[in-house]
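Box S1 | Example of a co-folding query
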Amino acid sequence: MEFTPHATCEDLEHKLRLANDLQEALPLQQLSLHYQPQFETGSGNVRGFEALLRWNHPHFGPISPTEFIPLAEETGLIYSIGDWVIQTACQKNKQIQEKYMPNSVMSVNLSGLQLQDSLFFDRVCGILQQTALSPQSLELELTERDRISLKDRRIDSLKRFAHHGIKIVLDDFGTEYSSLEYITTLPLSTIKIDRSFVTHINNHYEGTVLVEWIISLARKLGFTVVAEGIETYEQLHTLQKWKCDFVQGYLLSKPLHEQELPLFFRKVEWKQENKF
Ligand code: C2E
Ligand code: MG
Ligand code: MG
Ligand code: MG
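Box S1 (continued) | Returned holo structure for magnesium ion
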């Protein structure tokens, strides 16, 4: 377990308690997935969803994945939790395809550690078979924070997924120094521009120029481009103008509990029928 130098005793105690409680979170059904819709920027059509993990702690209430995913990585729980996420997200996507949207794509966030597990690829293929989903229905999101270097064996694992037809997405693009090396080295199909850049659109000259440049560069290199964290119509219209392929953000929809999906699709259908 990693301890930061400025952490107080209470911080450490809290961290240890959470790490301990996390072991029980899966069997006690405290983990769940929320699904944030992703939209085609030009047409406004739904393209699919990103699965986002939630932990409802019995004492502390909802805990952010940015807090407990690092604990899952440090304790090795990320392997079982990661498998559960993919299994659950694929089952949900199968239901969505059968009920509402035959081509729905589900994006799942990965931890770099999962790629070190040599049986991971086979397990993911097993889940796709078992849920009768095509590999094209699943995307795996990886962040630059995982620091996959040029000679890293995880690149082979990523290539296996890519050859099998499972798209690899680079999440939080632009937040780490390695961005450009990454996009020329990894077998990526999609680049997801981080919310911190999207926030700059139209209220910060250099930031605006940078996002426009990233989108045009990525498209020239043949990547699909997604922007995350869209919160204003101004941002949306600018991204439409710049031909960003897909968008995600609170403006269009927050991550939804599975019980909110039927209402979401009813609204989508109603908008289509009424043409707006
Ligand atoms: P991420 O993959 O970059 O996910 C986007 C985050 O931004 C999500 O936070 C989402 O709820 C939030 N978000 C979406 N639209 C907006 C917006 O318009 N405004 C603002 N302010 N926020 C928005 P969340 O769900 O708290 O997840 C945080 C991070 O935790 C994720 O970032 C991802 O890196 C990680 N994570 C979540 N689920 C999993 C998982 O199943 N496995 C792994 N390894 N990591 C996960
Ligand atoms: Mg993500
Ligand atoms: Mg992101
Ligand atoms: Mg993020």
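The chain has a mean pLDDT of 93. The domain at 38-52+78-270 is CATH 3.20.20.450 (TIM Barrel).
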